[in-house]
TrEMBL record:
GO terms for biological process: DNA repair. It comes from the Bacteria. GO terms for molecular function: catalytic activity. This is TIGR02757 family protein. It comes from Desulfonema ishimotonii. InterPro entries: CHP02757, DNA_glycosylase.
Length: 272
């Protein structure tokens, strides 16, 4: 069993060391966070960028840029003085696939409410964190319900209690909690060990091929199963390999088929 885990970790670490670099970020909405040094701005940018991270990559980048260009001089300052009618007017005509300016305005108003009550999005999230929690799921559930307090922002904000994988919210948390060559961090006090894997169809396929899950659906149960598998390799940081693995298929020159076969052979799967 120990040799299997060592083998898996060695392969994943090789991919991490090769691809967990800023040079491989584009095209990824994560790149927008690098433009903001102030954590108060960066957490708002992260919320917007992750919420819009679905659909064609080119359109995601265009939509996020459009929103940020309207949140001048800085997102935190912009939101501090915003009102719901003002946000509706500011983002009138905005559309990103199924999301409208109304959805965006309601999400941002929910974020404003959290900031007014707790001082920052981080503090608002931290208010729901308990040491006894096995993961961030309970705190994330509370946080998402607070984000919809101003009205229904559609699928921009997931409701974890419905069983969704909550890929974009878990992506947001990865960006904000982890700190390495790619993830900027800033949300101290939340252990990386409690993060959940950001799971979409693409990552689900990769993890299925690697033998990390038998779940057919990319739902929250699959998220928990896959996160547990990664935690057996890296208990302190189970989402460590998310960015590097998802480069295969996101970047045009990298295909999932290129993920080295030596990661898990037929006899070197993670132990039951």
């Amino acid at each position: 069993m120990k040799s299997d885990l060592k083998h898996a970790k060695t392969g994943l670490e090789a991919i991490y060391q090769s691809y967990n670099r800023r040079a491989y970020v584009h095209p990824d909405p994560l790149e927008f966070l690098y433009e903001y040094r102030d954590a108060r701005d960066r957490e708002i940018v992260g919320l917007v960028a992750s919420a819009l991270a679905y659909g064609r990559v080119a359109q995601i980048l265009k939509s996020v840029r459009t929103v940020l260009n309207r949140m001048t001089p800085a997102p935190a300052t912009f939101l501090k003085t915003a009102s719901l009618p003002g946000l509706r007017n500011h983002f009138a005509g905005f559309k990103h696939r199924f999301a409208t300016g109304e959805h965006l305005a309601l999400m941002l108003m929910g974020a404003k409410g959290i900031i007014e009550r707790h001082g920052s999005l981080r503090a608002g999230f931290m208010s729901g964190v308990k040491k006894s929690d096995e993961s961030v799921l309970p705190a994330m559930t509370l946080f998402c319900n607070r984000l919809v307090s101003a009205g229904d922002p559609g699928h921009l904000v997931p409701l974890p209690e419905r069983g969704s994988a909550c890929k974009r919210m878990n992506l947001f948390l990865r960006w904000m909690v982890r700190k390495d060559a790619v993830d900027p961090g800033g949300w101290d006090g939340i252990p990386a060990s409690k993060l959940l894997i950001p799971l979409d169809v693409h990552m689900h396929r990769i993890c299925t091929n690697l033998g990390l899950t038998k779940r057919k659906q990319a739902d929250m149960r699959a998220v928990i199963e896959i996160t547990a598998a990664f935690a057996r390799i890296m208990p302190s940081d189970p989402v460590r390999y998310d960015f590097a693995l998802t480069r295969f298929g996101i970047r045009a020159e990298m295909s999932p088929e290129e993920i080295p076969d030596y990661l898990f052979s037929s006899t070197d799967r993670l132990p039951d």
